[in-house]
């Protein structure tokens, strides 16, 4: 792979996973706040603008990289690797989360016997650690990837239209917990199969600004959707259309940001943490939650400047916590860390670079990737 494309992918991955923290950081409020201009309205807006829109580019990158892998490696041989890199972490992290909740709240919070398959493996519903449904859906994408790659080669337009319809109407039922994931995953396959040139320098400003404007406006849409039943609900066609458009715009904007950051000091700061990306993805909810627990103990959760500052800083707080956790686990049980990270354990040089990231521009890949 072109080194510039590889580095941009790595930078986009750590950028999007850090922004994903905004989707799950406290404080929470059910539904949509009444006012966009309230503190909770601002938090809800940022969740949409920066948090939820960062996931589709991760799906697209996954599809692109897997199509590339399967062009050189048989599906059966890759199956074992995907089991270790997706299913094993899915199980372990959910067990850790269930144990954490049990220690905090007692036995009554443990899943009932019939709930364990979903809690641990997300068979037909989100797992105990909700964001990890992505690993489950990514594994399903892998299982059907030979068909997706074939369709990407023979019927890209028709298949994309069918997957778009599926994303809007959730036709697949429980095959995917998030029906948008296979759409963007397939898009990555198309880019690889048809050898589309991947831009690693500044994209044309018009489409990027158009996508950025769409993100800004569509993130506001939830505050102004009609309240009639079936319109503002997450399962509605209107909501789904806005969501898919927002996610597509996010792919353009966040890739453009990654190309801009690649040769900047900000990119030089972020890139050394890319070997941590998978760990941050799995642990970011608990990592951010530790800081929120501290704020709760101090009794500051209702103080607007405090919870707004915490929310805005939550990606950085999660990053700091995860780096410390990986450093500790790596010293105590490297093999355990490897299981938690799907085989993506950082080496000594990569760990050292995280403590002085501005001094390291190009790093070796994470072990096992």
Automatic annotation (TrEMBL):
The keyword Calcium does not apply. It is a multi-pass membrane protein. The chain crosses the membrane at residues 49-67, 79-99, 133-151, 163-187, 207-225, 237-257, 277-295, 307-329. Pfam families: Acyl_transf_3. Keywords: Cell membrane, Membrane, Transmembrane, Transmembrane helix. It is found in: Cell membrane. Coiled coil: none annotated. Residues 9-327 form the Acyltransferase domain. Belongs to the acyltransferase 3 family. This is Surface polysaccharide O-acyltransferase-like enzyme.
């Amino acid at each position: 792979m072109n080194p510039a494309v590889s580095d941009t992918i790595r930078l986009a991955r750590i950028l999007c996973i850090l922004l994903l923290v905004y989707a799950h950081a406290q404080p929470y409020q059910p539904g949509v706040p009444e006012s966009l201009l309230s503190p909770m309205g601002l938090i809800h807006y940022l969740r949409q603008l920066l948090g939820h829109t960062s996931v589709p580019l991760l799906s697209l990158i996954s599809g692109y990289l897997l199509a590339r892998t399967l062009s050189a490696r048989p599906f059966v041989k890759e199956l074992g690797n995907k089991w270790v890199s997706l299913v094993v972490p899915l199980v372990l992290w959910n067990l850790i989360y269930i144990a954490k909740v049990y220690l905090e709240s007692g036995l009554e919070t443990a899943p009932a016997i019939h709930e364990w398959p979903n809690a641990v493996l997300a068979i037909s519903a989100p797992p105990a650690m909700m964001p990890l449904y992505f690993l489950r859906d990514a594994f399903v994408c892998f299982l059907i990837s030979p068909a997706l790659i074939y369709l990407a080669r023979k019927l890209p337009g028709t298949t994309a239209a069918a997957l778009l319809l599926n994303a809007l109407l959730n036709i697949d039922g429980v095959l995917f917990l998030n029906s948008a994931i296979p759409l963007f995953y397939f898009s990555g396959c198309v880019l690889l199969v048809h050898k589309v040139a991947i831009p690693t320098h500044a994209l044309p400003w018009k489409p990027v600004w158009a996508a950025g404007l769409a993100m800004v406006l569509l993130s506001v849409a939830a505050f102004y959707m009609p309240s009639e039943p079936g319109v503002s609900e997450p399962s509605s066609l209107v909501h789904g259309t806005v969501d898919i458009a927002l996610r597509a715009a996010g792919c353009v904007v966040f890739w453009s940001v990654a190309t801009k950051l690649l040769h900047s000091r900000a990119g030089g700061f972020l890139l050394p943490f890319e070997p941590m990306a998978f760990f941050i993805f799995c642990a970011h909810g608990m990592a951010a939650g530790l800081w929120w627990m501290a704020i709760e103990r101090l009794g500051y959760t209702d103080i607007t400047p405090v919870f707004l500052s915490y929310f805005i800083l939550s990606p950085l707080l999660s990053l700091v916590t995860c780096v410390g956790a990986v450093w500790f686990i790596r010293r105590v049980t490297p093999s355990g860390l490897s299981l938690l990270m799907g085989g993506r354990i950082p080496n000594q040089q990569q760990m050292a670079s995280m403590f002085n990231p501005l001094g390291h521009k190009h790093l070796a890949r994470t072990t096992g990737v």
